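Exercise 7.
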Amino acid sequence: MAGLTILAGAASFAYGIYLFSWTDSQYELYNQGLAAYQTGDVQKSIKYFDQSLGVYKARQNETWVERFVYPKPNKEVAAQAAFHKAKALIRAKQGKPAVEAFQESLQLNSGNLYQGRGLTPREVQEAEENAKVVKYDLELLFKNNPSLAEGQGKGKPKPGDGKGDQQVPGDQPGKMPGKGNKDAI
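Solution. The predicted structure, written as C-alpha cells, is:
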C-alpha cells in the first residue's frame, strides 16, 4: 500500500512540474507575431497571428479534463491577434484578407459583449475601446479603398436596382389627412 501511495505521489509531482513549466501557446504565438510585426517581418507576423488564432479555435473543443486542468483560451487575445493580422495584411498590401481579419476581430470582440461576465469596469472599457479602434481602422480602410467596401453590409440601394423604387407596405401616403388608408397594407 505504501508503494502505491509513493507511486501516486511521484506521478502527481511529475504532472505538477509539467503544469508548472507549461506555457500557453496562444499567448506565445501572439507575442512572437507582435515581435515580428515590430521588426517589420510582415509575412512572419501574419503566420504567427494565424497560428495564435488557430490555437484559440482548436482549444474551443477541449475535453472536460483539459478545461479543468488548463486555462480557457482567451477571446480578447484572439481578437487582438486578428486585429494585428489585419494591420500586417494592410502593410503587405492584401486588402481583402485584411477586411476578413478585421471582421473576425469584430466577431470575437464587438465591444458590447462584456457586461455581466465578471470583468472589472476598467476591463470592460478597455474591450470596448479595442473594438472601437478595430471599427475605426476598418472604416479607414474602406474610405481609402472604396472597392473593398462594396458588398459589405446593406448600404443604400442604387438607382434602377428595382429595390429602391418600391415603397414598403404601409408607407404609401394617403389622399386624406390622418393615418392613411388602412387597406393599403
